[in-house]
Amino acid sequence: MKIDVTSLDGAAAGSLELNDAIFGLEPRQDLIARMIRYQLAKRRAGTHAVKNRADIWRTGKKMYKQKGTGGARHGSARVPQFRGGGRAFGPQVRSHAHGLPKKVRALALRHALSAKARDGGLVVWAAASVDAPKTRALKESFEKLGLANALIVDGAECNANFQLAARNIPQIDVLPVQGINVYDIIRRKKLVLTKAAIEALEARFK
Predict the structure, then answer these.
(1) Nearest one of 180, 171, 23, 168 to 105, comparing CA atoms
(2) What is the DSSP letter of 25?
(3) What residues have CB less than 8 Å from 53, skipping those under 6 apart?
(4) pTM higher than the cut 0.70
(5) Domains of the chain, earliest start first
């Protein structure tokens, strides 16, 4: 699969042959959905908690006599039936993470990349670097290129000036190739890869 390479200012910079085993698959929505669910579950804090009847401090005295009242028999004011009592079956601190095989995770990433390539959301740059960390100048460049909502993935190390200039632009994410993931690819309309990022991905999935 061949794709045109451009520069940050929109000028043509040749073309590149993409590996069909990474960018030319028929996207499987079920794999992508499983991976997104895995990622979002893993990032949940899981710090939600309620007080059950054992955590409530109230007197242990029997509320009223056992017989003769005509009402139900109660021995504790801490039970969930009463105002101020503990909560039954409420959430407790726990991890929401669940397992997903390593091969499935790798395959889901390849399908997410293929999905972007198929729907025309993949852009390849020769490099992602600027001379000075100026947000306004970079934002103007993005407007000329039509990038309003994008994930930009560079090589092993991102250009420091580019990261500083882009970090305050809404709906623009910049990641090194090690941080590329299915959720960030799918949540942005455009995926911008540098040549260095493509080389690293092809080496990773070789």
Answers:
(1) 180
(2) S
(3) 76, 78, 79, 80, 85, 86, 88
(4) yes
(5) 2-44+98-204 (3.40.1370.10), 50-90 (no CATH)
Identify the bridge partners of residue 153 per DSSP, sorted by sequence position: 175, 193
- Which residues, 6 or more positions from 152, have their beta carbon under 8 angstroms from its beta carbon? 128, 166, 172, 173, 174, 175, 192
How far apart (Å, rounded) are the C-alpha atoms in residues 145 and 133?
A: 19
pLDDT in tens, the chain (206 residues): 889 999 888 888 888 999 999 999 999 999 999 999 999 999 999 999 999 999 999 988 999 999 999 999 999 999 999 999 999 999 999 999 999 999 999 999 999 999 999 999 999 999 999 999 999 999 999 999 999 999 999 999 999 999 999 999 999 999 999 999 999 999 999 999 999 999 999 999 98
134-156 residues labelled b (16+ CB within 10 A) or e (exposed): eeeebbebbeebebeebbbbbbe
Nearest CA to 185 out of 118, 99, 122 is that of: 122
Q: What torsion, rounded to 10 degrees, do the Cα atoms 133, 135, 141, 143 define?
A: 160
Handedness of CA 171, 97, 108, 18 (dihedral sign): positive
